[in-house]
Prior knowledge:
The protein is of the alpha+beta class. The chain folds into 4 domains: 2-86; 91-143, no CATH class; 146-154 and 254-323, no CATH class; 157-253 and 333-351, no CATH class. The protein is built from 9 helices and 13 strands. It has helices spanning 2-21, 26-43, 50-63, 69-79, 83-86, 100-105, 126-132, 318-323, 341-351, and strands spanning 149-168, 182-189, 192-199, 203-205, 213-221, 228-234, 241-243, 248-260, 265-270, 274-279, 283-292, 299-303, 310-313. The strands form 3 sheets. The protein has a 5-stranded antiparallel sheet with strand order 3-2-1-8-9, with no helix packed on it. It has a 4-stranded antiparallel sheet with strand order 4-5-6-7, with no helix packed on it. A hairpin with a 6-residue loop joins β6 (228-234) and β7. The radius of gyration is 29 Å and the shape is elongated. 24% of the residues are buried. The model is unreliable at 1-6, 12-27 and 320-352 (pLDDT under 50).
Amino acid sequence: MKHRFFMSSFLSCFALCLTTAVPVMADNLLDVVEAAQTAIQKKYPHRDSIARKLALEELEKTARSGNSEEEIIKVILERFPETSDELSVKPDLNSNGVPDEWEKKFNVSAGFTASESDEDADGFSLLQEFQAGTDPVDPLSHPKFVTRLYVTAVSHQRFADLELASVDIPRPYYLGTKDNWVAAFNVIRNGRKRLEFVHIGGSFKSNDQNGVDFRIVDIDIDQKTEEPVVYISRFDKGERIPCRPKQPVYDPLLGVSFLNAINEKQFVSSVGGTFKLGTEKTGEETYRIVSADPATKVTIVESAGEISEAFKIPPVPAKSAAKNASAKAATKIPVKTDATPAARNADVKSQK
């Protein structure tokens, strides 16, 4: 739609200038360019397809070439031959942007169905299915779900329910091995916060319900602050995530928060990670996050499968962002924990 608006306004000015210099019908050029734009959108139905954007850019460059109208039309028809098929006017009784002939082909009530209706409940309107050239009454035939995806945030996500409470290091720490060094983490067990003591090489789960599995890679002393630093890693990744007492712990990988405009739901995935869209009824699509820009929020994803296709996911439009802004979550009050031996014993007794 953005391309159409800018192309129409540009061609209106271009046509006005052209009529003063060349004695031909400028409206003809406008019709050809708009038909070429429609042909490109049908050939590359995915809105964020890189091939589609390149074709539209080529069309714009041709229209701005400064050649005569006849020359421009000739070049457009040569580069985009499907344009000639789009130039024929087709009846549209209710002016919903969908030709009656196409509606009848798929047993849609011609002249009566609204353009925003979703006959097969796949999340795409009648007009969107027509523009993409998909079947409006088949839930497995539709544009890519990724074309209805937006980015709400790009940032390093905090590990929920994970906090290093303290580190027990025998003094002097530079003597002997680190076998006796112990890290005390605040974790969630049965819905309640409690301490869990782990040695180097040991593992723990931040939350017994839906938390992340970690193992302690190393414990060291920061030479500048002389404070202990515990390095942890997820089991499936070779990483060193630093943890400092009483400080939040963040994922070193950038996390991307997405808004699915079809069901108005949000989800988070990390750069390099994969996610799925759709259902068994409408078909599932799998994507991998290639890169994300925290400043612009623009995220590049690629589809999984034999033929990989890249998509640029834009940030949420201003109006949608305001509409879908969720209320701020309640701030959890941190529990002050004393990691002395006495406190440890008291904690152990309370768990029995």
